[in-house]
What does this fold into?
Amino acid sequence: MKEVDYLIIGGGYAGTFLAHHLLMKQIPFILITDQHESASRVSAGMVNPAVLKKFTTFWLAQEQIELLHEVCTEIESYTGKNHLIKETVHRIFHDENEQRLWLKKSEREDLAPFLNPVFRTFSTIRNPHQTGEVLQSCRIDVSSFFEEVHGYFKSKGYLQHAHFNYTEIDLKQKTYRDIKFKKIIFCEGMKVRQNPYFSWLPVHPNKGHHLTVKLSSPLAFKATLKKKHFLFPLNKEQYYYGGTYDRDQTDDGFDQNAIAQLQAGLSEFYPHPFETASVHYGFRPTVKDRRPVIGAHPEHDFMYVFNGLGARGVLNGCYFARELRDHLQFAKPLPQEVRLDRFEE
Ligand SMILES: Cc1cc2nc3c(=O)[nH]c(=O)nc-3n(C[C@H](O)[C@H](O)[C@H](O)COP(=O)(O)OP(=O)(O)OC[C@H]3O[C@@H](n4cnc5c(N)ncnc54)[C@H](O)[C@@H]3O)c2cc1C
It folds into this structure.
């Protein structure tokens, strides 16, 4: 029997960052995850402190970005690679009103660290009203992040690629097959709906598609462009373009409307031919109040859930995984805003 303090189920951003924070304090854990195409794996990996519809920011943006930089340096110490790509986001303005709004907002104390008041024009694309740069924005190299972090965990025996079968938990002994644990933490994203202990949580799917495209005239600059969706290079040949938002489509399978929406969105500012090489989709786990949901099961105090990362899986995952570790290990209270008991009667 292997004995660990924590058994983590699910290896998206939530479970992977939690495992990392445990590793940093040398706390024994095992992470069990299947290898299905999760929301995390299809995400753009954007780290963006600005809300690009209204040019605002959000709760804890600065703290979250700072922690992410620290964590990526820690991850580099054991994978040998820093997975943060420091290419900023440039928002393509629709018209002069947007330019004016951006300039006005960039003078505000809370937004000045994020909205660059100096505009830029790029070649190759259509941007007659220029673009605004989101300072401090960057992105995670998603596929290498998961490959290398999971690869390291696996090489140390901390990760098992398998489906977790809920009926095999022994609630009294606190065991799962040959693993004895003190606490179990479910980080399953939208698959929480299949979890017999937490399926009641008000976590709702928001389906997102993205395309990988080949551009006939590659972009001769290093930046992430954003008009309706994000465009950035994946490698020498292919670019990521996405993702869409759809709260109504809960079925598996490609949605032709989403694909058409993406192709039209890209054509709006990329006036050259492009080829759609592949389509991917995932389900963002969202909560109505836009806060993660973290806490113990009302009846089984050794069972925890960490979910509801919404559209900000990277920042929320990294930041709140550390809050959760410090709560579990050092009895630090969880922030009121993310506690699971806000949904209990
Ligand atoms: C198209 C798209 C683009 C996005 N872009 C961004 C972005 O740019 N930046 C950003 O921050 N966020 C982005 N997001 C949001 C982000 O992807 C999510 O917030 C995040 O992935 C949620 O992470 P998670 O770990 O909670 O869930 P998931 O990523 O769904 O991971 C859960 C994992 O647990 C596994 N699992 C579940 N049940 C079991 C079981 N019983 N046994 C074994 N394994 C199990 C699942 O298979 C999965 O691998 C995007 C999402 C989409 C769909």
